[in-house]
Amino acid sequence: MVIPLLQEDKRAGETTRKGFYLYNDKRKASLDPQMKKYVKKAREISGVSVDPELVNISEKDMVEMIFFPMVNEACRVLAEGIAAKPADLDIASVMGMGFPPYRGGIMFWADSFGSKYIYSRLAELSKLYGEFFKPCNYMAERAARGVPLSSPLQQGKSRL
Questions:
Q1: Which parts of the chain sit beneath pLDDT 70?
Q2: What's the pTM value of the predicted model, to 2 decimals?
Q3: 116 partner at 20 to 30 Å CA-CA among 19, 34, 98, 148?
Q4: How far apart, in Å, are the Cα atoms of 88 and each of 4, 46, 76?
């Protein structure tokens, strides 16, 4: 709903030097304080209201609410055998969805928090916001044993 409002006001991004951001002569973007006006108008038109509890959510909580379900889904992919190993998901997340390479990939990044912490946060979020956040069995097993999410599923067997 915001985009039609921006187009109506001839805010086409870098071309017009304004869109979601303001652009200087060197094409460097900066936040545009006018965007609040467009978001407010879009909400009024579409009849969307903001839950007052979510207005003051911390940056940490936002990151966890966005990325922990992605980690949970990655765990499902491993459990179902769709991906052979966690490193495959790290590569896919960096190359396929633009996950920051300096974070090492979704599974590597998740291990910086630990399976127990991610499991507990997902369980907590599930109670507050519903099934979307419910941790999968793979996540629950890893958390219960304190095993990193990126460690191999099974101990490799020597062919000798």
A1: 153-160
A2: 0.70
A3: 98
A4: 39, 41, 14
